[in-house]
């Protein structure tokens, strides 16, 4: 009995699955043929899996597939014929338009009341997991969030950022034991810059005291919050793009990721409660979180954010501002290490503004444009915010510039639901905007007015990076102090040239939520050696 029934069951089940699968394959082929036959205005690029969806995002690029780092790996090929291309996945994912043209960027990514393009909910999944927030919201919801969050980003905050950076730099020199050293070997510069960026957000964002000393193990043996944040940042892409049930597999990485998320969530909840108490007690603090809670309490209830939204916005700061700033600073130092001539040029400005010993003040920020420029140029080379992801909310059109050398534009219809991706690597390496785009040349940005729209790697229009000034002020103060005291040197392999070092280290990028180079060491040599 049993035998005969299972003998019938299995072939039937298999037949049913085969039919379902067959239909989905047919549907896919039908769609592909339809896309292939549309006389798209843009060249089509075929690839097995869409680079930014499951399972394509799991892979890096190889000869047979464009993975999640494809825009970096193929940065000199993709846009050779056209600044906008249609990426068509054959096996999995939906087609999407990718563009290296910032004019298209302004049409789709700048926000504004009349825009037909939105950030698609899918691209916001990692952020929404922590509560709705300024980065994920759209329309009136976005304006409400940006009001509350934006209220905190003003001159008082930037002065605080500047002062705290200075304080943290001194503390770092002390705690790391560099005070009496003439030469310092830093095995992983990212450890230093990540700690700096984290401390800045934890002190100017949350109002914590900044100390370079490692956080003590918590009394109950739970994970230190810094550790939780690091793990969440590192596993975010897995948790976002993998099917949910995989999180519960007994793999140590998954378990750690789950624990870190839980730890961070409880931490956030405590923070909201604590801030409300501080505001109610009339304590005036300049950190973003307190000001945000305060301006929220001052709003009429119609415009107020709830607790989960406040948490969402705090998380955005940690998330959008931590890894981006840390890796951009590391890249700047990496480029400094192989460009002694630029270091000297910048040092000259630092000395002419500050002299050899005076403490830098926030007012100096505006005179240190060459220091700002080395940071900007590092972000241009490896844009930490590597894509602006948008989708057409309506049937609409794009005005597309003709290729370089040809005047005029053409109007291209875009169907509702079309995904448009502004490829920041493409934009920042586009020869339309940059001479010798692959060359690190900070002089492109000398004399650039602060917050100029000409620098596009923080995004465009009203939806551009809220933390741009925060990051730039922090970087300028830190680099000014560091470059005045120390000469930055690369750690070369035997016989390796600086150009080869750049290829091996700085051109080897990792793509997750941010784009960044792999970890690397640098060396510092004191400019005025201590006699011993
Ligand atoms: C070098 C460092 C940074 C880079 C390269 C960077 C890059 C970007 C880019 C490209 C966007 C636009 C995203 C889009 O339009 O889809 C953005 C948005 C944003 N950034 Fe940054 N960012 C940096 C640092 C920071 C810091 C330090 C903070 C906070 C303290 C921050 C907070 C935000 C927020 C809240 C948004 C969303 C704004 C909105 O949608 O209204 N960023 N960032
Ligand atoms: C920053 O430090 C200066 C002294 O160097 C001080 O006068 C100023 O009040 C401080 N500002 C803030 C916002 O901490
Ligand atoms: C408009 C919107 O999506 N608001 C969301 C804010 O965040 C909370 C918590 O994640 C959601 O429940 C809301 O839907």
UniProtKB/TrEMBL annotation:
It comes from the Eukaryota. Its cofactor is heme. Its main location: membrane. One of its GO terms (molecular function) is oxidoreductase activity, acting on paired donors, with incorporation or reduction of molecular oxygen. The chain crosses the membrane at residues 6-26. Pathway: Secondary metabolite biosynthesis; terpenoid biosynthesis. GO terms for cellular component: membrane. Keywords: Heme, Iron, Membrane, Metal-binding, Monooxygenase, Oxidoreductase, Transmembrane, Transmembrane helix. Gene3D superfamilies: Cytochrome P450. Heme binds at residue 465. It is found in: Membrane. Belongs to the cytochrome P450 family. This is Cytochrome P450.
